[in-house]
Amino acid sequence: MLILSGIPSLATHIAREEQLTRLLRVVHFKPIDLTQQADMDEMVQLTFSYAEKAGLDFEPLATTDFIERLAFTCCDRWGLVIEMLIEAFTSAVVKGETVCSVDHFTRAYATLYGGTAGYSPLTAPNYRDSFDQQVLFDMFERMSEKKGPSGR
User: Fold this and answer.
1) What was the pLDDT predicted at 5?
2) d(CA 13, CA 129)
3) What are the residue boundaries of the structural domains of the chain, listed by start?
4) pTM of full prediction above 0.85
Protein backbone atom coordinates (compact mmCIF):
# COMPACT_ATOMS: atom_id res chain seq x y z
CA MET A 1 0.00 0.00 0.00
CA LEU A 2 1.31 3.42 -0.91
CA ILE A 3 0.11 6.42 1.06
CA LEU A 4 0.83 9.93 -0.18
CA SER A 5 -0.25 12.35 2.48
CA GLY A 6 -0.22 15.94 3.58
CA ILE A 7 0.86 17.75 0.43
CA PRO A 8 -1.85 18.70 -2.05
CA SER A 9 0.79 19.59 -4.67
CA LEU A 10 1.56 15.87 -5.00
CA ALA A 11 -1.65 15.51 -6.99
CA THR A 12 -0.14 17.26 -10.03
CA HIS A 13 2.87 14.93 -10.01
CA ILE A 14 0.69 11.85 -9.64
CA ALA A 15 -1.63 12.97 -12.43
CA ARG A 16 1.30 12.68 -14.84
CA GLU A 17 1.47 8.95 -14.21
CA GLU A 18 -1.63 7.50 -15.84
CA GLN A 19 -1.23 3.99 -14.41
CA LEU A 20 -0.71 5.28 -10.87
CA THR A 21 -3.64 7.66 -11.14
CA ARG A 22 -5.98 4.79 -12.07
CA LEU A 23 -4.88 2.78 -9.04
CA LEU A 24 -5.37 5.54 -6.50
CA ARG A 25 -8.23 6.20 -4.20
CA VAL A 26 -8.11 9.79 -3.02
CA VAL A 27 -9.13 10.40 0.58
CA HIS A 28 -9.35 13.89 2.04
CA PHE A 29 -9.06 14.29 5.78
CA LYS A 30 -10.80 17.09 7.59
CA PRO A 31 -8.47 19.50 9.38
CA ILE A 32 -7.76 18.75 13.01
CA ASP A 33 -10.28 20.47 15.27
CA LEU A 34 -9.20 20.12 18.87
CA THR A 35 -12.45 21.68 20.07
CA GLN A 36 -13.92 18.31 19.09
CA GLN A 37 -13.19 15.70 21.76
CA ALA A 38 -12.83 12.99 19.10
CA ASP A 39 -9.96 14.87 17.44
CA MET A 40 -8.26 15.54 20.78
CA ASP A 41 -8.58 11.86 21.68
CA GLU A 42 -7.17 10.87 18.28
CA MET A 43 -4.19 13.23 18.68
CA VAL A 44 -3.39 11.80 22.10
CA GLN A 45 -3.78 8.23 20.82
CA LEU A 46 -1.60 8.99 17.80
CA THR A 47 1.23 10.50 19.85
CA PHE A 48 1.26 7.67 22.36
CA SER A 49 1.01 4.97 19.66
CA TYR A 50 3.95 6.33 17.67
CA ALA A 51 5.99 6.90 20.84
CA GLU A 52 5.31 3.36 22.03
CA LYS A 53 6.33 1.93 18.66
CA ALA A 54 9.61 3.89 18.96
CA GLY A 55 10.11 2.72 22.55
CA LEU A 56 9.72 6.23 23.96
CA ASP A 57 7.85 7.69 26.92
CA PHE A 58 5.53 10.46 25.71
CA GLU A 59 3.93 11.12 29.10
CA PRO A 60 5.93 14.32 29.92
CA LEU A 61 4.49 16.00 26.79
CA ALA A 62 0.94 14.70 27.16
CA THR A 63 -0.58 18.07 28.02
CA THR A 64 -3.39 19.93 26.32
CA ASP A 65 -1.02 22.83 25.67
CA PHE A 66 1.54 20.67 23.88
CA ILE A 67 -1.08 18.80 21.83
CA GLU A 68 -2.60 22.13 20.76
CA ARG A 69 0.83 23.49 19.84
CA LEU A 70 1.63 20.34 17.87
CA ALA A 71 -1.61 20.54 15.88
CA PHE A 72 -1.08 24.26 15.24
CA THR A 73 2.55 23.74 14.18
CA CYS A 74 1.39 21.06 11.76
CA CYS A 75 -1.26 23.39 10.31
CA ASP A 76 -4.05 21.19 11.69
CA ARG A 77 -3.18 18.48 9.16
CA TRP A 78 -3.04 14.85 10.19
CA GLY A 79 -0.36 13.94 7.67
CA LEU A 80 1.96 16.68 8.92
CA VAL A 81 1.44 15.60 12.53
CA ILE A 82 2.51 12.08 11.57
CA GLU A 83 5.59 13.41 9.78
CA MET A 84 6.48 15.53 12.81
CA LEU A 85 6.07 12.56 15.14
CA ILE A 86 8.27 10.37 12.96
CA GLU A 87 10.98 13.03 12.70
CA ALA A 88 10.93 13.86 16.43
CA PHE A 89 10.87 10.24 17.58
CA THR A 90 13.57 9.19 15.12
CA SER A 91 15.79 11.94 16.48
CA ALA A 92 15.20 10.76 20.05
CA VAL A 93 15.91 7.11 19.23
CA VAL A 94 19.09 7.93 17.28
CA LYS A 95 20.34 9.88 20.29
CA GLY A 96 19.58 6.90 22.55
CA GLU A 97 17.00 8.79 24.57
CA THR A 98 13.95 7.14 26.08
CA VAL A 99 11.78 10.10 27.12
CA CYS A 100 10.22 12.56 24.66
CA SER A 101 10.99 16.23 25.12
CA VAL A 102 10.06 19.48 23.45
CA ASP A 103 13.65 19.61 22.14
CA HIS A 104 12.97 16.57 19.94
CA PHE A 105 10.03 18.38 18.40
CA THR A 106 11.80 21.71 17.96
CA ARG A 107 14.61 19.92 16.11
CA ALA A 108 11.98 18.14 14.00
CA TYR A 109 10.37 21.51 13.30
CA ALA A 110 13.71 22.91 12.10
CA THR A 111 14.25 19.88 9.87
CA LEU A 112 10.76 19.79 8.36
CA TYR A 113 10.12 23.51 8.06
CA GLY A 114 13.58 24.97 7.70
CA GLY A 115 12.87 27.16 10.70
CA THR A 116 14.94 27.76 13.78
CA ALA A 117 14.74 25.13 16.50
CA GLY A 118 14.90 27.80 19.19
CA TYR A 119 11.88 29.70 17.89
CA SER A 120 8.82 27.75 16.90
CA PRO A 121 5.13 27.49 17.72
CA LEU A 122 6.12 24.63 20.01
CA THR A 123 7.91 26.98 22.39
CA ALA A 124 7.01 30.60 21.63
CA PRO A 125 4.70 32.46 24.00
CA ASN A 126 1.56 33.67 22.22
CA TYR A 127 2.38 31.31 19.34
CA ARG A 128 -1.02 31.79 17.71
CA ASP A 129 -0.31 35.50 17.34
CA SER A 130 3.34 35.01 16.38
CA PHE A 131 2.92 32.43 13.60
CA ASP A 132 0.67 32.18 10.57
CA GLN A 133 -0.33 28.63 9.62
CA GLN A 134 -0.32 29.41 5.91
CA VAL A 135 3.26 30.67 6.17
CA LEU A 136 4.17 27.52 8.12
CA PHE A 137 2.61 25.34 5.45
CA ASP A 138 4.43 27.23 2.69
CA MET A 139 7.71 26.71 4.58
CA PHE A 140 6.99 22.99 4.85
CA GLU A 141 6.22 22.70 1.14
CA ARG A 142 9.41 24.55 0.18
CA MET A 143 11.47 22.23 2.36
CA SER A 144 9.70 19.19 0.90
CA GLU A 145 10.48 20.37 -2.62
CA LYS A 146 14.15 20.89 -1.72
CA LYS A 147 14.38 17.37 -0.30
CA GLY A 148 12.88 15.92 -3.47
CA PRO A 149 10.91 12.70 -3.89
CA SER A 150 13.09 10.69 -1.51
CA GLY A 151 12.10 12.93 1.42
CA ARG A 152 15.74 13.49 2.46
Assistant:
1) 60
2) 34
3) 10-147
4) no
